């Protein structure tokens, strides 16, 4: 599904060229659950944004579903992204001028769905995440934890083929975080490909593979010690997320 060959990302600065990613060779098969780990500044989020087709300024080759991403016209690249990728941003990236309901409905507008179908899907996701009471609120009216829940809900609402998640539980309390990881594990078992950036070895264990970055280089690519088994959470997803 995802194939990177010799991928590099760099910036020109007064002192010379600074590399963020170096000679990245990486393949992610459809149905894998991969965790990307490494210290701050290792290039993890940069890699995720390239995979998500938000950043097309790189050297090397990136193929997604066989398509050469770096050679696609911008509109075609955006269409490929919208139809296949769900993204959980560390900083939410909800649209401030849209309500929670409208933020969730937006990804469905890129699918060939009639309005009643979109309404049914959004209603189901609102119920799953226990945020029905927040549907008419704007992001600025939500706490950080609530915004994170909406961000995760938005990423999965259109049933994308791949979910890219940047520290998806970073702003959630432990019960909410565990439920999100269990949800990802369930989606992966149903066939969704997941690539997450995380500092948490516990979260990484929910997947089957760990790729480790340091100073922009891949320094490790290993099977996870053992996928975490879902355990009943102490509480359901909470409307009052922290």
Word description of this protein:
The protein has 242 residues and is an alpha/beta fold. The protein has a domain at 2-92 and 160-223: P-loop containing nucleotide triphosphate hydrolases (Rossmann fold, 3-Layer(aba) Sandwich), CATH 3.40.50. Helices cover 30% and strands 27% of the residues. The protein contains 7 helices and 10 strands. The chain has helices at residues 44-51, 74-84, 100-105, 115-128, 144-156, 174-189, 201-204, and strands at residues 2-13, 16-28, 33-37, 59-64, 67-68, 85-88, 162-166, 193-197, 209-214, 217-223. The strands form 2 sheets. The protein has a 6-stranded mixed beta sheet, sandwiched between helices. It has a 4-stranded antiparallel beta sheet with strand order 2-1-4-5, with helices on one face. A hairpin with a 2-residue loop joins strand 1 (2-13) and strand 2. The longest helix has 16 residues, at 174-189. The two termini are 35 Å apart. Mean pLDDT is 90; it is low at 228-242.
Characteristic key phrases:
four-stranded antiparallel beta sheet; single chain; globular; alpha/beta; Rossmann fold; 242 residues; 10 strands
